[in-house]
Design brief:
6 helices; alpha+beta; about 30% helix; about 30% strand; 5-stranded mixed β-sheet; single chain
């Protein structure tokens, strides 16, 4: 029981159980025409397939080429939705992700500008950037099992497919190993900590219930892998829509 409670605490911590304070109506809303900086950092174009079997001897990991370039796809989706919402999109190609990945931090029950990234914030404001959208690859927990012993955890480095087999039955999951942060510059605020973005990112691992059993689980064909790529693509499009909605209508 102690192990299970510990695992639950860790899982909640990983998904951000510290709830920021509620915001007033339309919190974080920007005016149409505002400049929104966009930076995408997804270093690899390979998809990962991680499999966990009944025993450790059945486990394996395989890589596959994505049918599309992840960085280009994310730029395309986010640019389209932000422009549709009436914003000017500025690609932040001269910035490193580490200089804009925490422009607003939650401290002492409120959002404040991060002193460690003050230089980047000043430069962005000088360029009249009202908000920054950062989309980057992130380690993602695909599985946490705590039954009958020590908890088992599976973490994927790249987007792709996670499969879990037990006693002849296999479950299939699409894993979008990406995270979006949306920082409004004034007042400092991370819109990704609120709805409509919060729940979507917490629940981004999605079971593919109608996935057809492949001929060879260790070697999926392009057609067999297509539903995985499609599910990840759907997640990216939905996340870009929610980002545009958060900036144009505010969050809650």
């Amino acid at each position: 029981m102690r192990r299970r409670l510990l695992a639950l605490f860790v899982a909640l911590a990983l998904t951000g159980c510290m709830t920021p304070p509620p915001l007033p109506p339309n919190g974080g809303q920007l005016a149409k025409g505002a400049k929104v900086g966009l930076l995408v950092r997804i270093p690899t174009a390979s998809a990962e397939h991680m499999h966990v079997g009944t025993t450790v001897f059945n486990n394996f990991s395989t890589t596959y080429p994505f049918p599309w370039n992840p960085t280009a796809k994310v730029y395309e989706a986010f640019t389209s939705e932000l422009e549709k919402a009436g914003f000017q999109v500025v690609r932040l190609t001269s910035f490193a992700t580490t200089s804009v990945n925490a422009l607003a931090v939650f401290k002492h029950d409120r959002w404040i500008a991060n002193p460690a990234q003050a230089w980047a914030a000043r430069k962005l404001k000088d360029d009249q950037i009202a908000a920054v959208v950062l989309v980057e690859a992130t380690r993602t927990q695909a599985r946490l099992e705590c039954t009958g012993g020590p908890c088992g955890e599976s973490v994927m480095q790249n987007s792709g497919l996670f499969t879990r087999s037990m006693l002849g039955s296999t479950r299939y999951y699409a894993v979008p190993a990406i995270e979006a942060k949306v920082f409004v510059m004034d007042p400092p605020l991370n819109l990704a900590a609120y709805e409509p973005m919060l729940a979507q990112q917490r629940q981004r691992v999605r079971q593919l219930k109608d996935f057809q059993e492949p001929r060879d689980l260790k070697r999926l064909s392009t057609a067999e892998f297509a539903p995985v790529a499609s599910a990840i693509d759907d997640h990216v499009r939905a996340l870009s829509r929610n980002t545009a909605q958060a900036l144009s209508q505010g969050v809650k």
